[in-house]
Prior knowledge:
alpha/beta, Quinone Oxidoreductase, Chain A, domain 1, Rossmann fold, 2 domains, seven-stranded mixed beta sheet, six-stranded parallel beta sheet, 27% helix, 28% strand, globular
Amino acid sequence: MKEKMKAIIATGYGAPDVLKMQQVDKPQPKENDVLVKVHASSATTADGMMRTGKPYFGRLMTGITKPKHAIPGTGFAGVVENVGKKVATFKPGDRVFGETTLGFSTNAEFFTIPENGVILPMPDNMSYAEGATYGDGHVTSLNFLKEIANIKPGQKVLINGASGSLGTAAVQIAKYMDTKVTGVCSTRNVGLVKSLGADHVIDYTKKDFTKVDETYDVVYDTIGKSTFSKSKNILSESGLYVSPVLKFSLLLQMMRTSISGKKKAKFAATGLRSDGELQNMLVELVEIFKQGRLKTVIDRQYPLEKVAEAHTYIASGHKKGNVVIIVEP
Length: 329
């Protein structure tokens, strides 16, 4: 008889209550796979979007009528339980962390990942809760700031949503890359964003950041609450508005600005980059972490059976930093 494990199953698209704890077959590693016993996994704003199946054109990748991969979660940290016979890099007992991208499956006790997937040995002084968050805010923000915006030392960067998962990572990465950082957040998070190294903080409850008397080389809208049109006035002559939040209006602005004008709008789906590219970013982030320049902000931790509750909290819009699912206490 097949071994069983606990996992969260998305029974369809919809509200958080579509996420149910179930007993399912424990996966077995193929010859090039690593079987990971999960200690902590991620719950993210992007997971919430996948759960609702909106925007609808996203279902072309995730499944038309229900999620193709029933077990949600992409970020993970845990211990190698077993390996396929051709695996040479990892062995049982290794502490590992990484990201499954469109493979999902980490909100469970076990999952498999190819040896050449986005998986790395975990630094000794990194906790499982920290490691589980890297594939979301840390990797996405490094991708947007370094690869898409190509930020340079001395440039001025504004980060909207500076207290969220992407924002808290972005403030630190942008400072590490020697730029002048302005963070935008609510009153209660001003102290947090300053403590992460922001040179200036704009409290959006008191001031609209798109109406300040200042220009920026890059506006990184981590939460997609603004637009290129609104931000255009505060962009420098060849300024760039970038956002990881997919909206039809942003795609139109991308097409328009690619044809004319020096100011540009850009969107990219970090999870669609190759595993090799994502792994290289993870290696770079580990280096920043080892230098003591990258702290992970964790707001709440939930046990596996409360993933639906975690999604409800994330959807409330009051999250600071990251939400983590603790699978193995």
